[in-house]
């Protein structure tokens, strides 16, 4: 079946309008005509089609206090149109139901079942999703599932996306999910609706058991040939440093990761996953070993960021996961390292941020993957 | 003036056809119907329009020896449709006239006039271009000028693209030229018609007075916010290494650049720009100091490539400029370093190459910039 040029333009416009309210939230028709460059009657026809399909609703805005007839406001139907998002981490499993517009409607979390085989984790994740499905609206539009897999799961456990995809599809009794890396999807989320909105060149650094990066360059996600780009944790920064699990010496994550903190702080920490927060807390309380450990890790954090700033010339760097704690413990020191090491042309426009979406960023980013086909062609389903 | 959907589709198709023969060279109409997914009569109408505009010609192919009527072949009119390309380097200035299809029609080169001010270099480049213009066909289509500026010129001389653009436009008596980095444009050229054809994730490493990278990720050039991405020469690989001109210690280019070779080889070299080739030659002739210097630089070359492979997950790495010599001097050693340091998932599909286009790569890439608006809308001029 071929599509006429007019029909193809209409579908593009439907997608552009739905994407606009998905990303920006409730928007007046007047603003949509300006932003999309379409006339009022076209916007009216498009919103009518999207409303009929149950994807948006329209209504008068709150009292504006201004004179004149208010422009009708178009809102994404977040509670009716949603996707599922999964975060597969070394220590825990998380799942969420996320509405059009990026609204987190429901969440579940549990510890990851121990063991090196993925089957128990897949079953546990499916149980979280099944539980959320029971409270989802019966007439809802389920756009599918996105999955964020942490670099630690990929490398320490060796679970490949290619193996997880059919296992999750079977367990969820659903089409194959969309899979990406945790840092990559957190970058997508912060770029779409968080600390990096409007920036075309972004590095999101995620710390957990390892360190990885999500990279937006020229407005697009950079994931490499096999989706394994962003493995900055194994950028060697200190060739005379300690041995890393990967076989190299002085990888970035051996200098700034949780294990490095554990090693350097010389104090026990309660649970894996809390080492960074605990070390930072002990440093704040005046413990000299913890202070030295935090200063060491912060210095190497700035060091590695300077390298990445020279490579990518970004305008925003976001510190997520355990690196959020580390950044907030020593922002001036990290700034100084970047100032002294990165080239002026590359560092001049860089702003350092923590994630607006906090720990939800990977989940919100995973849901973006699931929304993509709806946004590309809203009435095709 | 608004454009009808049909007209917009026709322009897209004209651009797609012209781009196809620009990139692939002479192509039969039969192959174009298959590759562009258009029917024979549409292809016939498009080629007729492009031929009338003087952008292509059509003819019967060489004798194929096969039975049946041969399909008409469409060729880019390389001798009539051309752009100018400039390479602004620390030691020399180069210019070329390059035809549609990427054919180098004419070249000129001269030493860069000494001094820290750009005016003499701009005047010398304009003279090279003016000289080529005299032998260009009178009825030719000049698509404009692309400029490759080496990272050494940007950083050692401090010449900004923003200052060079109007100066070159005035000296050339032409619209503002398109400017990019040497490594970035060499990457574009090798990706379009060289060693990295068909690869979507490519790192082109260029060595001259410094080291820089041109990066293709997801099929597109990655240049960063200000066009200064790819400054891999100032990725610090050896924090206990020697001081770099940028103020850091142990930058990649202090370990693998020409100055490093000069320092390590302990032998004089004839001229700047020839240090790498000379050191490699001396090493081949059995000079122990040169052998040690080459082994040192090759090892650090592999080290830095492993970092970049982990960050970008590319399928092709190309070694250009002085790094071509260094790679060819010790390919096995460089392979071993990458094998031992890069993560398996990132390194498994990487092929290492030298540039197919040799030293012409930055010029051919600069011309690609100049051709871009013609290819986007062939009949608009």
Automatic annotation (TrEMBL), chains A, B:
InterPro entries to which the protein is assigned, alphabetical: ATPase_NBD, ROK, WH-like_DNA-bd_sf, WH_DNA-bd_sf
Coiled-coil segments: none
A Pfam family assignment: ROK
Family: Belongs to the ROK (NagC/XylR) family.
Name of this protein: ROK family transcriptional regulator
Phylogenetic placement of the source organism: Bacteria, Bacillati, Actinomycetota, Actinomycetes, Micromonosporales
């Amino acid at each position: 079946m071929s599509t006429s040029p007019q029909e193809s333009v209409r579908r593009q416009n439907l997608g552009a309008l739905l994407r606009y309210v998905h990303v920006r939230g409730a928007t007046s028709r007047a603003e949509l005509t300006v932003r999309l460059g379409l006339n009022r009657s076209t916007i009216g026809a498009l919103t009518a089609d999207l409303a009929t399909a149950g994807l948006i609703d329209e209504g008068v805005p709150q009292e504006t206090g201004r004179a004149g007839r208010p422009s009708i406001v178009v809102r994404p139907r977040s509670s009716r149109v949603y996707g599922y998002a999964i975060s597969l981490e070394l220590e825990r499993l998380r799942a969420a139901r996320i509405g059009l517009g990026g609204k987190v409607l429901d969440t579940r979390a549990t510890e990851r079942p121990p063991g090196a085989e993925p089957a128990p984790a897949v079953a546990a994740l499916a149980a979280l999703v099944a539980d959320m499905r029971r409270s989802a609206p019966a007439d809802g539009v389920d756009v599918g599932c996105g999955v964020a897999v942490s670099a630690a799961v990929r490398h320490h456990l060796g679970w490949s996306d290619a193996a997880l995809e059919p296992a999750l599809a079977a367990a969820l009794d659903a089409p194959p999910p969309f899979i990406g890396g945790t840092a990559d999807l957190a970058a997508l989320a912060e770029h779409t609706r968080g600390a990096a909105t409007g920036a075309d060149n972004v590095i999101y650094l995620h710390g957990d058991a390892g360190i990885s990066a999500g990279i937006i360059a020229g407005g697009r996600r950079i994931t490499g040939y096999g989706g394994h780009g962003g493995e900055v944790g194994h950028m060697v920064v200190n060739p005379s440093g300690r041995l890393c699990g990967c076989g190299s010496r002085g990888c970035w994550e051996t200098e700034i990761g949780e294990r490095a903190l554990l090693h350097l702080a010389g104090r026990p920490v309660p649970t894996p996953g809390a080492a960074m927060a605990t070390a930072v807390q002990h440093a704040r309380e005046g413990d000299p070993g913890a202070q030295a450990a935090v200063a060491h890790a912060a210095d190497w954090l700035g060091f590695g960021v300077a390298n990445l700033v020279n490579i990518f010339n970004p305008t925003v760097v976001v510190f997520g996961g355990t690196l959020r704690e580390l950044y907030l413990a020593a922002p001036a020191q990290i700034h100084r390292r970047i100032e002294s090491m990165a080239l002026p042309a590359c560092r001049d426009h860089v702003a350092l941020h923590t994630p607006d979406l906090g720990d939800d960023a990977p989940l919100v980013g995973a849901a973006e993957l699931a929304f993509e086909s709806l946004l590309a062609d809203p009435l095709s389903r």
